[in-house]
Amino acid sequence: MPRHVAVIMDGNARWARRSAGHEAGVKSLRELTKLCSEWGIGVLTVFAFSSDNWVRPKAEVELLMGLFERVIQMELENFMREGVQVCMIGDSLNLPKSLQKLFADAEEMTKNNSRLQLIAAVSYSGKHGIVQACRTIACKVKDSHLELEDFGERLIERELETSCSEFPCPDLLIRTSGELRLSNFMLWQLAYTELFFVRALWPDFGKAEFIEALLSYQQRQRRYGARVS
Amino acid sequence: MNWRSKSKQRSDGEKQNTAGDNYLKWRKQAQLLRRGSRRTVPVPSSLNVDDILSSPFSDVVRWIRSMGSTNKMRGPNCWTARVGSFGLQLIWHFIHFIISTCYFVLGLADAVDSYVISSGLLKKYNDLNLGKLRYLAIGVDSDEARQTSKVIKLLQWLSDIGMKHVCLYDEEGVLKKSKDAILEKLSHVRLFEETDEKLPLDKKNMNLELASPSDGKEAVAKAANLLFTKHLELKSATEDQGENVFTEANMSEALRALGCSGPEPDLLLVYGPARCHLGFPPWRLRYTEIVHMGPLKSMKHGSLMKAIYKFTLVHQNYGK
């Protein structure tokens, strides 16, 4: 089984107009979290909101921010019961203050949970993440917390936001709705990740589709176990 | 499953790149198996037990073997075991036959589809609208990239289709080493230099860029070094905490200064056994469409045309 699964939850707006698509998407996320927890997957990263999505209509953005707040409030008890640790990556400064506080509280309350680490990428950009890591390193050197002569790949990797996880690089990436691109998601971390693009829209992504994705990942593990010719 | 308890077994401060480690282990295994196949050991007509033992049916097979080896069993138990063993082997052969047939049929359909597209019978593939496909990248598995003749053939197909700007990438820099061999065979292809970006190309010529990891993560690390030097210069002058120095625009500029800043490809076609982008320069992959084409040795002209045609139908919102 992959240790870290990442998901780009695309297709909510196409599934249904207004809020129905996003509400249905929450159900898919709930089910996927449960399956990951049951099947022993250690880390699940979900791409909830891109920094490029801020250009969407204000009404839609406010709807999404409100939805994130409701989901965290409703699910916090479940997370505590199911042993799910919540982490958030992305530029939180752009988020409403109330949502920033909710995420901070959820991270604090669930920090000792160990069954599944759920990383929510909100207001996230892969490029910004790389730049942010470089900025952090520079500040640490400037403040003499770190001594170094040169920036290196490993140092940048250690300072990326995904280093909050023991398995920062996903083994499997799933993108729904048939689109075949990364859309500025975890650009650094996805170098050797199995890419699985599925036609189903995110609200229609369920157990069957997840099994198909896992089989695709496992076939790659066994691809050279076939009969030699 | 407790991912946290497993993580305690690792050394402190060392984050595990399991995706990268898994990929490298899998490639090593694949190379060993391929070398084994070159010894032309005849394939036994019976099933390869080691393959079966690595399959989901391993428990069943071990049980079958244990049945066969229990020669000391006597009487009805022995007969029952033998009949059961035979029955299970029969089921295994049947399932294997069904799956092999399915793969054969799919392969045949793919070959026919590719032939029909290449022959020009389907009009929609004859006149591809390449307006949206300004920059095409090809990622090749390094083992397969050593087959220079295949790479040259692929580039020839792309040139015939009308592609003007192509980037070839592999994760070990094999293609860069084969640069001379490639350019020798393709006279109308010239190496891409950033200064040439704006020079018009005539109908036949094609710009070719060769990339490797030194243009990807390594380049980003070097660019960060450049920005860090600039940041230190501002150290005493201002209280700048890096926000004005470490920006996406400055990073792009630093990469350009290092000569590692080619355009973001519109489409990346990956040739190789693994469905991943093989570490293509991450700074250039933001909205690139990625299509896995299978192994280079099985590349087909029709599949290439189909992938490019499908790309021309794509609509991107860029986050909106």
Automatic annotation (TrEMBL), chain A:
Q: Does the keyword Transmembrane apply?
A: no
InterPro entries per the UniProt record, alphabetical? UPP_synth-like, UPP_synth-like_CS, UPP_synth-like_sf
List the GO cellular component terms: chloroplast stroma
The pathway it acts in is: Protein modification; protein glycosylation
The first-level EC class reads transferase
**Which GO terms fall under molecular function for this chain's record?**
ditrans,polycis-polyprenyl diphosphate synthase [(2E,6E)-farnesyl diphosphate specific] activity
Can you tell which superkingdom this protein's organism belongs to?
Eukaryota
Name the GO terms of the biological process aspect: plastid membrane organization; polyprenol biosynthetic process; response to cold
UniProt keywords, alphabetically: Transferase
Q: Does the keyword Transferase apply?
A: yes
Q: What is its EC number?
A: 2.5.1.-
Cofactor field: Mg(2+)
Q: Briefly state the protein's biological role.
A: Catalyzes cis-prenyl chain elongation to produce the polyprenyl backbone of dolichol, a glycosyl carrier-lipid required for the biosynthesis of several classes of glycoprotein.
Alphabetized PANTHER family for the sequence: DEHYDRODOLICHYL DIPHOSPHATE SYNTHASE 2, DEHYDRODOLICHYL DIPHOSPHATE SYNTHASE FAMILY MEMBER
- Family membership: Belongs to the UPP synthase family.
Question: Which HAMAP family does the entry link to?
Answer: ISPT
Q: What is the recorded name of this protein?
A: Alkyl transferase
Give the gene name.
LOC115736782
TrEMBL record, chain B:
Which top class of enzyme applies to this chain?
Answer: transferase
Keywords attached to this Swiss-Prot or TrEMBL record, sorted alphabetically, are: Endoplasmic reticulum, Magnesium, Membrane, Transferase, Transmembrane, Transmembrane helix
Which regions span the lipid bilayer? 90-109
Give the top-rank taxon of the lineage listed in the UniProt record for this protein.
Eukaryota
Name the cofactor(s) required for activity, per the record: Mg(2+)
- Catalyzed chemical reaction(s): n isopentenyl diphosphate + (2E,6E)-farnesyl diphosphate = a di-trans,poly-cis-polyprenyl diphosphate + n diphosphate
- Name the major location: endoplasmic reticulum
Q: Name one GO molecular function term.
A: ditrans,polycis-polyprenyl diphosphate synthase [(2E,6E)-farnesyl diphosphate specific] activity
Q: What is its EC number?
A: 2.5.1.87
Concerning Gene3D superfamilies, the annotation shows: Decaprenyl diphosphate synthase-like
Q: In the UniProt record, which is one GO cellular component term?
A: endoplasmic reticulum membrane
InterPro entries reported in the protein's UniProt record: Nus1/NgBR, UPP_synth-like_sf
Known pathway: Protein modification; protein glycosylation
Compartmental location: Endoplasmic reticulum membrane
The family this protein is said to belong to: Belongs to the UPP synthase family.
Q: Tell me which PANTHER family the record gives.
A: DEHYDRODOLICHYL DIPHOSPHATE SYNTHASE COMPLEX SUBUNIT NUS1
What is the protein name given in its UniProt record?
ditrans,polycis-polyprenyl diphosphate synthase [(2E,6E)-farnesyldiphosphate specific]
